[in-house]
Specification:
It is a single chain. This protein has 8 helices and 17 strands. By secondary structure, it is an alpha+beta fold. The protein folds into 2 domains: 125 residues, Probable inorganic polyphosphate/atp-NAD kinase, domain 1 (Rossmann fold), CATH 3.40.50; 157 residues, Tumour Suppressor Smad4. The longest helix is centred in the middle third of the chain and has 14 residues.
């Protein structure tokens, strides 16, 4: 067994979602084998919604000594969300646990925010044996519902894509790309207002409004190009109706929406989304469409809530 780089690495718990987009038995075996080079490993396969949360909560609850338990999430962004919910268990994750993501879903945006486009085997080797120590990254929470946000949230077009993608018979990133293009072709901007730390930064017809810490959504769309994962702030981007919805898919590929007339890009700690005509917002977070959310929601940052094995400092500077 090689010497681990994580200080006092106690063990790894691999939580694998067998139903995630690209999970295979061979992939799970490879992950377990890679972790076993550095520490003791326990594998747990999920069989239903909530299993990953319960397993991660158990790992976090037992992390009271000087050692660090690494919880490896093998799946997509939905699996990562469940694992993080368990690690936090309603509050702040203890110092004795750390998350490591292995991408095996559809979008895998959480992994990209941590490691860029680096192959996962290289990332795992660096995380456990190459000098990476846990960094406490920011999360967010929906004030009204208590829902945890790991990567980001959005209203308008970037939420509508989840409805549009349901009827598309492609898979993976191609399905999400086609879903966004389909949604954009028939999208009507909604009357909205965005308030950041008590100041109204946008009021009027709204194509999309996004908030979060991760730069990319659905892996390929650079929605928040200036985002820093651990600065204690939420990045907020609002695209007004001055930009045609049909232009948005291509603009999001390169971050070209930022700086255009009618686009607002700011940072803050608390963000309120409103639909000013009283109709329900179309709202999503972490790739999950939220139903019955009303016409107003507030998202608050949770600074430094989650220890993660990642390399955000090494990611490209898109601006």
């Amino acid at each position: 067994m090689a010497d681990p780089a994580v200080p006092h690495l106690e063990s790894c718990l691999v939580i694998a979602n067998p139903t995630a987009g690209t999970v295979t038995r061979e992939l799970i075996d490879d992950v377990v084998e890679g972790c076993a080079r550095y520490t003791d490993v326990r594998l747990a396969r999920t069989s239903g919604r909530g299993d990953a949360t319960a397993l991660a909560a158990e790992a976090a609850g037992g992390a009271r000594g000087p050692g660090v338990r690494v919880v490896v999430a093998v799946g997509g962004d939905g699996t990562v969300l469940e694992v993080v919910e368990g690690l936090l268990n309603g509050g702040r994750a203890p110092d004795g646990v750390a998350l490591l993501v292995v991408p095996a879903g559809t979008g895998n945006s959480d992994y990209r925010s941590h490691w860029g486009e680096r192959p996962w085997r290289e990332a795992l080797e660096q995380a456990l044996g190459g000098g990476v120590v846990p960094r406490r990254l920011d999360l967010a929470r929906v004030r009204e519902s208590g829902d945890l946000i790991v990567l980001g949230a959005g209203a308008g077009l970037t939420a509508e894509v989840l409805r549009s993608a349901r009827g598309i018979e492609l898979r993976g990133k191609d399905r999400l790309r086609a879903g966004l293009e389909h949604a954009a072709a028939q999208y009507t901007p909604y009357p909205g207002r965005i308030t950041v730390d008590g100041m109204v930064v946008h009021k009027g017809d709204t194509v999309l409004a996004n908030v979060g810490g991760g730069r990319h959504r659905a892996w390929q769309f650079l929605v928040l190009p200036d985002s820093v994962l651990d600065d204690g702030l939420l990045d907020v981007c609002v695209v007004g109706a001055e930009t045609a919805a049909t232009d948005v898919p291509e603009l999001l590929r390169t971050g070209g929406h930022v700086g255009r007339t009618g686009t607002v890009y700011v940072k803050g700690r608390s963000v309120t989304f409103e639909r000013t005509d009283g109709l329900p917002l179309c709202f999503e977070h972490d790739g999950e469409l939220v139903t019955d959310c009303g016409s107003r929601l507030t998202v608050d940052v949770l600074p430094g809530a989650l220890p993660v094995l990642c390399d955000p400092a090494g990611l490209p500077d898109y601006r």
